[in-house]
Amino acid sequence: MTLDSFARADTRAMGGPDEPGHDMELKMKLNEISNNPGAHKRKDKVGRGSSSGLGKTSGRGVKGAKARTGTKVYGFEGGQMPLHMRVPKRGFTNIFANNFSEVNVGRLQKAIDDKRLDVSVKVTEEVLRKAGLAHKSRDGIRLLGHGEITAKMDIEVAGVSAGARAAVEKAGGSVTTTFVKKVYMNKKGEPGKKAQRRAKSAETRAARAG
After folding, report:
1. Predicted pLDDT at 114
2. Band of pLDDT at residue 4, cut at 50, 70 and 90
3. What is the pLDDT of residues 45-94, one digit of tens each?
4. Higher pLDDT, 191 or 127
5. Residue 124 is part of a domain; what is its CATH number?
6. What single DSSP character describes residue 157?
7. Same domain? 138 vs 189
8. Across the chain, where does the E strand assignment appear?
9. For a disulfide at 105, which of 99, 112, 149, 201, Cβ 3.0-4.6 Å?
10. Alpha carbon of 183 to those of 186, 191, 196, 197: distances in Å?
11. Which range of residues forms the domain containing residue 15?
12. Distance, C-alpha 57 to centroid of its chain
């Protein structure tokens, strides 16, 4: 019985609004509360006779590892090549990849039109998150160039694509980037081999350009 049905039954027992006793406070007893029909399903009792259909072997079949307690055979298909080994695997997850929250310039323009973004002040990553345009990310927000933007704005983000920078500057605004790629050090406190190769390549490019 639910609380509403109990209250209605108690009201009928006490009489209508014009009958004596109607103004009495409704009281509910804990021992009169029960689940709705079908809200709780009792667990099947197995091993209680063959007429139940789950007697003797309790629905587990005859002997074997799967008839015992405490054993599971996940992914075992009787000896044939299991599914998780048959399907092809492609690629990998780069644990050193940058984790950016991406925002397109078209969404910025829509937020400005909806009065959710104030471009009279400098737009930072905190402002974008408060406006609901980006979620939390480890390395900040990266601005992408999908869509159009016509409002002039000064924005400071972690990263920006070439198309997004061109679109903002075409509208008369400016973009400032703050992201600096982390340099992993070895045990001696020196940059790793990859960082050393990148630094050497940058020096080579600078020498060629000079």
Report:
1. 93
2. low
3. 999 999 999 999 999 999 988 888 888 888 888 899 999 999 999 999 99
4. 127
5. 3.100.10.10
6. E
7. no
8. 101-104, 141-144, 154-157, 159-160, 174-177
9. 149
10. 10, 6, 10, 12
11. 3-32
12. 43
